[in-house]
């Protein structure tokens, strides 16, 4: 029986009669026809090699990754972790920060307390002799000229006589006031003054004049005898009445005035233009006084019609007040006039004293000539002027640093004259956290406190909102 044979050993290399399969296009004898990593079908371990020179790795799924890609992914993971950590730390705090009320903005504005109307100083046609002063009620003194030493003022003294009577016995509306019975002493005083050529109104014993009649006789034809009669009627004697006159002067601040008779006939009754302007202001507060001195004429008992010696009434807006003339005093006039500027009715008060002339008509003609020139100049220079342009005066600043300029909504214009110092005040109101374009943040006031010009202060632009970062960190 035949024995079992040993396994046959296959010869290496191609065998005769056994076909060899080659890949299409492969050269005979090349390895292109066998699987990669095998030698004639025998598995061979093949180390990883970079493709095109780059290091590569094979994931279990067969995806090829680079080393640089792994580093980028690790960095992203770290950043995400940090972000998560920050948000975790802020947590509810971020929501609280974003919901907080914003702090109020601050408003600053710089403005002087007094500003002067710009322009060349006014050159007034002041008289070459005597003294003069002009002021505009509510605005101030326009100017003065001449000697400020006290001098005789003539019948201008009667303004104080009327002032004291109306203070002691006030009248309102059409009131005539109490009756004043003319006494024999009053008649005797009248007769004694005739030889001296004084201004007088005839009186008769037993005649009854009302207070208003007496004041009209005092202020229109300038009756010296009625000044004496009123003084005695009020105070019991002329001396007692003079005490009242001088006390009133002191109370008004007329430091350079001394009354020695109620009519002003005596040259020892002295004052200044400045003092008499002060008195005129006070006297015109009585509507009855202002009405009487504006009368061209009136009718009183015994003499009938009387005429006002103030020939300027009705011209240049003049409505008062009192003339006065003596040899020692010269020509004098305390005057008042109305002037309308920019829709505002102004009261001009002035005094021109001690004008030369050979007699009363010449003296009064000279003083009237001066006053007309002065009032014409006043009308030419007293106008509406721009005191403050609509330029930035400050700013609104938010807590996060945004700003908006603050300026008057329009130029601040006032009535006055070049060089006039005008009081200026500004008020502000606390802004909110931010402002809108044109928001009103205050006011500017200029002029007298009782009748100022008022202009709003406004923000130029809206302030931007704060950034998210600012809100999270403040």
What does this protein look like?
This protein has 474 residues and is α+β, with helices and mostly antiparallel strands. The protein has 3 domains: 69-98; 106-118 and 387-473, Peptidoglycan synthesis regulatory factor (PBP3), Domain 2; 131-355, Beta-lactamase, CATH 3.40.710.10. Helices cover 28% and strands 26% of the residues. The protein contains 11 helices and 24 strands. Strands 5-19-20-24-23-22-6 form a 7-stranded antiparallel sheet, with no helix packed on it. A 5-stranded antiparallel sheet has the order 8-7-17-16-15. Strands 1-2 form a two-stranded antiparallel ribbon. Helix 3 packs parallel to helix 8, helix 4 packs antiparallel against helix 6 and helix 6 (224-235) packs across helix 7. It is elongated, with a radius of gyration of 53 Å.
What top-tier CATH class of the largest domain fits best?
A: Alpha Beta
Strand order of the largest sheet: 5-19-20-24-23-22-6
- The CATH architecture name of the largest domain reads 3-Layer(aba) Sandwich
Spans of 5+ residues with little confidence (pLDDT < 50)? 1-65
User: What's the helix count?
Assistant: 11
Residue fraction in strands: 25-35%
For the termini, the CA-CA separation is 108 Å
Q: State Rg.
A: 53 Å
CATH topology of the largest domain: Beta-lactamase
The best one-word shape is elongated
Q: Roughly how much helix do the residues carry, as a percent range?
A: 25-40%
CATH-level-4 superfamily name of the largest domain? DD-peptidase/beta-lactamase superfamily
Query: How many DSSP E strands?
Result: 24
Family: Belongs to the peptidase S11 family.
Organism: Winogradskya humida
Region (Disordered): 1-68
Transmembrane segments: 76-96
């Amino acid at each position: 029986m035949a024995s079992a044979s040993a396994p046959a050993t296959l010869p290496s290399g191609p065998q005769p009669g056994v076909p060899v399969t080659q890949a299409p296009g492969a050269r005979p004898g090349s390895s292109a026809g066998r699987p990669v990593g095998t030698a004639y079908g025998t598995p061979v371990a093949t180390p990883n090699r970079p493709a095109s020179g780059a290091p590569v790795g094979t994931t279990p799924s067969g995806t090829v990754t680079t080393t640089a890609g792994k580093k980028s992914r690790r960095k992203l993971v770290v950043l995400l972790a940090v972000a998560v950590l920050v948000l975790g730390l802020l947590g509810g705090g971020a929501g609280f920060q974003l919901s907080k009320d914003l702090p109020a903005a601050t408003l600053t504005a710089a403005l002087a307390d007094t500003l002067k109307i710009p322009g060349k100083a006014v050159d007034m046609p002041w008289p070459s002799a005597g003294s003069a002063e002009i002021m505009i009620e509510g605005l101030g003194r326009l100017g003065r000229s001449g000697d400020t030493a006290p001098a005789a003022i003539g019948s201008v003294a009667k303004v104080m006589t009327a002032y004291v009577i109306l203070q002691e016995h006030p009248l309102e509306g059409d009131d005539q006031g109490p009756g004043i019975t003319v006494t024999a002493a009053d008649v005797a005083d009248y007769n004694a003054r005739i030889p001296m050529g004084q201004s007088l109104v005839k009186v008769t014993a037993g005649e009854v004049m009302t207070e208003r009649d007496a004041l009209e006789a005092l202020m229109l034809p300038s009756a010296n005898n009625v000044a004496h009669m009123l003084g005695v009627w009020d105070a019991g004697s002329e001396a007692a009445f003079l005490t009242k006159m001088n006390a009133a002067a002191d109370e008004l601040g007329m430091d350079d005035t001394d009354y020695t008779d109620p009519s002003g006939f005596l040259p020892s009754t002295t004052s200044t233009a400045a003092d008499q302007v002060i008195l005129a202001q006070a006297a015109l507060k009585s509507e009855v006084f202002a009405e009487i001195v504006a009368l061209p004429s009136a009718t009183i008992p015994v003499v009938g019609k009387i005429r006002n010696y103030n020939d300027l009434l009705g011209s240049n807006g003049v409505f008062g007040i009192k003339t006065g003339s003596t040899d020692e005093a010269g020509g004098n006039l305390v005057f008042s006039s109305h002037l309308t500027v920019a829709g505002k009715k102004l009261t001009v008060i002035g005094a021109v004293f001690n004008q030369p002339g050979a007699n009363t008509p010449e003296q009064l003609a000279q003083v009237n000539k001066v006053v007309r020139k002065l009032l014409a100049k006043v009308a030419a220079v007293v106008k509406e002027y721009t005191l403050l342009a609509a330029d930035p005066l400050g700013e609104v600043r938010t807590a996060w640093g945004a700003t908006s300029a603050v300026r008057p909504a329009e130029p601040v214009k006032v009535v006055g004259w070049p060089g006039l110092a005008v009081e200026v005040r500004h008020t502000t109101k606390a802004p909110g956290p931010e402002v809108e374009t044109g928001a009103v943040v205050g006011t500017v006031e200029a002029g007298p406190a009782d009748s100022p010009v008022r202009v709003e202060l406004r923000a130029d632009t809206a302030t931007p909102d704060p950034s998210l970062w600012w809100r999270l960190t403040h």
